[in-house]
Amino acid sequence: MEAKDVLAKVDTKYCLDFLSRMVQHKSYTQTDGEKALAGWMAEQMKGLGMEAELTPVPGDRVNAIGRLKGTGGGKSLLFNGHIDTNPVTEGWMVDPWGGKVDDKFIYGIGVSNMKSGDAAYFCALKTLIDAGVTLRGDVILTYVVGELQGGIGTVALIKQGWRADYFVNSEPTDLQALTMHAAAFVYTIELVGDTRHLSKREEAVDAIGAACDLIPVLNALKFSGAKSPEHAKINRVHVGVVHGALGKELHEWRPPQVSDFVRIKGSGRYAPGQTEAGAVADIRRELDALEKRFPGLKATIRTEKKEGHQSMPAFEVPNDARIVRTLNAAYEAVRKSPQPTGAVLPMGYYGTDAGHFYAKLGMGWPGPVSMIVPPWTAWLSTAVEGR
Hints:
Blueprint: H1 3-7, H2 12-23, H3 32-47, E1 51-57, E2 61-68, E3 77-82, H4 111-130, E4 139-144, H5 152-159, E5 166-169, E6 177-178, E7 180-181, E8 183-192, H6 207-219, H7 229-232, E9 236-245, E10 261-270, H8 276-293, E11 298-304, E12 315-316, H9 322-335, E13 341-342, H10 354-361, E14 370-372, H11 379-385
Parallel strand pairs: 3-4, 3-5, 5-14, 6-13
Antiparallel strand pairs: 1-2, 2-4, 7-12, 8-10, 8-11, 9-10
């Protein structure tokens, strides 16, 4: 069966209804709700005739994993997506758990990030099954928890031995093919100056003044060692927290004094081929230069690792890899225009579970290939693989 014939069999109403039912599960990260949704996903996969199970994740959590066995002789394809969501914020004008659908939008917490992609995997496979398409290779659906803790659900399934020749992750990319994204780290910088009363400000070493000098330098920083301009463009440093006052206790009751202590917290992004150690060394060089501009200032930097969280590694796959070319062709067939592909911004600054497949299994560059793709074209790669 030709791909266009399979595409014609997509039941849009069923797909939207399926996504609505996913949204109606309140699957906040690290709650019973995400476990309930994992159980529901496993039951839905069994309903397709798949082998499906709930597999353990540290912290009394579970992933839902299903396999559709192929007839043999084909490549295997794994779809990966998280079902945990952030909390609902203020300002909703509709029920965030209602799964409302109108002629323009689907409304609900986690629709973009990333239940729409999760639903697309399932509905793509259902469409193929209903159309009678026989696949030579296995298709594995992995609905994971803990992406918001750095991908601990995906790390768990990798440790449990789940493997495939290719994989697809559908984090939201505005329908662009993201073939490279950055690794992430969190840092804390402390600046120690020397206080004086404002009457003697010229004798002080003003930590707040130094911080104001440093922050735009950090925000403009590109790390050394990028393999290409494409890699360099997903370098970024961001300052997200600044607190300055007197002493490490950050006393605020004496504003006539010059601040002698500032704590800065932020995050950095670096490309495949660069390292966290190299990124920190680049920041350290900027701190050395800051100390010269502010004689008497002492600056330190440390990275932070939150307990129970994973760090998300970088990810990369060649733009001319088979799976990328297949998805590009699928996109063009459906949307009638070339698909933007590469380290597309701002998505290239993401951290995703794809990085764990790249770092732990070598899937990406230069090993077995994979990519992050838009959800509603992903199913076509399966159809092509099964021909």
